[in-house]
Structures are given as C-alpha cells and as structure tokens.
From TrEMBL:
Record lineage: Bacteria, Bacillati, Actinomycetota, Actinomycetes, Micrococcales
Listed EC numbers: 1.1.1.22
Xref: SUPFAM superfamilies: 6-phosphogluconate dehydrogenase C-terminal domain-like, NAD(P)-binding Rossmann-fold domains, UDP-glucose/GDP-mannose dehydrogenase C-terminal domain
InterPro entries: 6-PGluconate_DH-like_C_sf, NAD(P)-bd_dom_sf, UDP-Glc/GDP-Man, UDP-Glc/GDP-Man_DH_C, UDP-Glc/GDP-Man_DH_C_sf, UDP-Glc/GDP-Man_DH_dimer, UDP-Glc/GDP-Man_DH_N, UDPglc_DH_bac
Species: Agromyces allii
Coiled-coil stretches: none
Family note: Belongs to the UDP-glucose/GDP-mannose dehydrogenase family.
SMART domains: UDPG_MGDP_dh_C
Enzyme class, first EC level, given as a word: oxidoreductase
Domain UDP-glucose/GDP-mannose dehydrogenase C-terminal: 316-417
Keyword annotations from UniProtKB, A to Z: NAD, Oxidoreductase
Name of the protein in question: UDP-glucose 6-dehydrogenase
Reactions the enzyme catalyzes: UDP-alpha-D-glucose + 2 NAD(+) + H2O = UDP-alpha-D-glucuronate + 2 NADH + 3 H(+)
Pathway: Nucleotide-sugar biosynthesis; UDP-alpha-D-glucuronate biosynthesis; UDP-alpha-D-glucuronate from UDP-alpha-D-glucose: step 1/1
Domain of life, per lineage: Bacteria
Amino acid sequence: MKLSVIGCGYLGAVHASAMAELGHEVIGIDVDPAKVGALQAGRPPFFEPGLPEVLTSAGATGRLKFSTDIAEVADATVHFVAVGTPQSADGYAADLKYVDAAIEALLPHLKEGDLIVGKSTVPVGTARRLADRVAESGTGARLAWNPEFLREGYAVKDTIEPDRLVYGVDDERDVDVLDRVYATAIGAGTPRIVTDYATAELVKVAANAFLATKISFINAMAEIAEVTGADITSLADAIGHDARIGRRFLNAGVGFGGGCLPKDIRAFTARAEELGRGESVAFLKEVDAINLRRRVRVVDLAVDALDGAPFGKKVAVLGVTFKPHSDDVRDSPALDVAVQLKGLGADVVVTDPEGIDNARLRHPQLLYTATTEEALRHADLVVLVTEWPEYVALDPEHAKSISRASTVIDGRNALDPAAWKAAGWQYVGMGRN
Ligand code: NAD
C-alpha cells in the first residue's frame, strides 16, 4: 500500500521505517528540514535501537522516502498523523496546534476514499472534531484513530510486533483498510480491538494513566518504607507474585518522565474537568505529585550525604535520559535532579551514553562528560538516576578508587547494595532499608 506519515519524530520516524520494512511504500513528512535530511540520508535523528538497521534496509528497497513537501503525500491513500501533542504552555491541557496544522496541511492533497489515521495521543473528543472537519472539506476522505503503544527503546519491535491494535473507526470500510496496513501483525495473531473514536482515544490515555499510577503506587509505598525501615524491593517482589498485581512497573525510584506519561496524565485531568468529570480522575493529580516528590527526595538524600553543604562539591550524576536505551530527556527525572543539585551550588557533572547532546540543549549550565570515569573522578557523591546497563554493571571497587565519595545514591534501586557496601560504600536506595 502507499502510505504517508506526517510527523517523523520518535513515533513517526519509526512508524514510517517499520511500515516500509513490512512492504508498504512510505513517504514520511516533517516540517523540520534537518530531521528530514538526516532520515533521507539513512541517519536516525535520535537514538533508538534497531532504527538505523530498518532505515537502511527499507531505504535500500526504494520504498521509504522523507520530505518536507506535504504535496508528496498525493499518491498515498492512507495518511498517518504522528505529530506531537505536548503539554500547553499555560496549563495541563494538550496543545493540539500541531495536529490541527497537520490535518489542514493534508486536506488539499486528499482524494475520495483516502484514510487519515491519527496516531498521536489526543484528548477524547478530538477525533470526532477532526472527522467533522474532514467531512466538511468535501474531499471524500475519512478518518480513523489508531493509538500507538510503542515504548522508546523497543520502538521498532513494538511497531512490527505490537501487543495489540486498536482501531477507532466511524466507517466499517476502514477496518479492512487498517487490516491491510497491519496484515503482518494480524497474520501473526495480534489481538485487534475495533471500536469507536472515543474509546480508542481513551484506551491510550487510560493505559498511560494506569502505568503512571502503578509507578506512583509503589513510590508511595517507598515513602512509607522510608519511615518504617521496611524494604520496598522485597515488598514489590512479594506483592508482584500475585498474578492480579504483577511485578512489572513496580520498581520504586526517582519516578517516571519522558514525552508521554507526565503530559498524558495532566492532559487527561484537564479534559476530564472540561467534561465535568474532574473528580473521576482527580487521583491522577496525586499520582503526578507523588512522582515529582521522588525527585525532591533524591535531592534531599544528596544534600544529606554532603552534610547539608552541597556548595562546591562535585556530584557525579549517572544518567540524564528519562530511561535507558533512549536519548530522550523530555521531562526527565534524572535531568531534573541534576538541575536542582546545580541550583543548590553543587558542581554537577552529568554523564550519559546517549542523552548528553539533548540535555545540553536544554541545560547548558550543567557540566557534561561522555565518560563515566571522568564523572566519577574525585567526585564527592555519586547519584545514579538512569539505570543504563553500564552503570548497573559498574565495579564498585574501581568507582571507590577514583572518587572521593563515600556514598552512592541509587535513584533507581538498580545496584546491588551488598556489592557496593562490601566495597566500602554507604549505599542509599529509594525505600530500601
Ligand atoms: P516528537 O516531538 O518526537 O515528533 C513530532 C514530530 O512532528 C516532530 O518531528 C515535528 O517536527 C513534527 N511536526 C510538527 N508539526 C508538523 C506538521 N504540521 N507537519 C509535519 N510534521 C510536523 O513527538 P513523538 O514522541 O514522536 O510523539 C508524537 C505523538 O505520539 C504524541 O502525541 C505522543 O504522545 C504520541 N506517542 C509517542 C510515543 C513515544 O514513545 N514517543 C509513544 C506513543 C505515542
């Protein structure tokens, strides 16, 4: 099939490449010429494992192209919209200006029977509003909403082998169109849920709200563990054995971040308030507050470890991305902790395998180094905030030999406390006795 993908960021670039890899002919459109230039040259503009390979292999087939010229979508019959829906500058609601602009830009190039497929995460009600706009355009095009559940770090695999497909449709014919787009996944038995627009939109925000709640739940338990001497990791293991609860997403730590969970739960509360149902999801404000408190907790632990005098002390911050296997620093707890410590006068030195360039753009006032060794050298304190495998595998004896620090703060409960204590460290975890 001939597809277009409007918006080639973390979601769209992967979607475009994966669809071409699966045999479709794809034109990816973005307003950012630098991004388009990199993608067209086969270079991913961001770090995502597996993306270089699909970009190269799909590019070599001639089925994958990128452009800044929206007119190039004219040959395609299915048009995915994957532009950003960030938090508004003046509140919690999602800013839909990119989605609206993408639809307006598309409309002049559409023809009878074309299908616009929204993938961006949007407030419930958006698809109906956009479908009305498409209908009034007189193009004869239709609209479906097909939310995306990929995880950064696993985005290529999640796109090629999704764990489910959700189609929000207004016209039965669109089920067949989407089934042809996703023929490989459907053939492999991927569950698919065919529903209306509102349910499809809500599935996405409900899933993210649930995941955020699960993380904040265990972090709330960590707060109680911290004042009682209980151990959150044993607690999580014990409750996680209950199949109704499950162990995944029950790792206490510095909390969630990134370009999705924080802004999605905030947009959900804003939308629920607009709908007169603010109380139904008011708990998400608490989920958000618990999450943000964990960042402050790490900073407080750091100040304590520096005897209340962080000024001029070298703090090695290990990790700056919101999670490992990504270069994404949007709303990153790790970056937030680094900035807060710098604000208290510490000489913060940040290291990360992939996120330094993005972090430097946002916070040039921090010191960055590409090597863990340099970050640790003569550090007065070590703070792990993103659990990259190389930090989890650090040799505590070597770390001890090159730093001045006596304490390691494990903001992700990812280190082996016994090994670090045996090497002479004072180990401070999150909710761990
Ligand atoms: P992003 O900021 O990385 O990418 C958005 C891209 O859209 C940018 O490259 C931007 O230049 C481009 N763009 C903006 N306006 C445009 C226009 N009018 N025409 C063409 N291109 C335009 O964002 P992202 O992380 O890829 O997220 C996109 C959407 O997908 C959001 O709604 C997000 O919530 C959702 N989502 C993201 C993920 C994820 O893991 N990143 C997962 C699931 C859903």
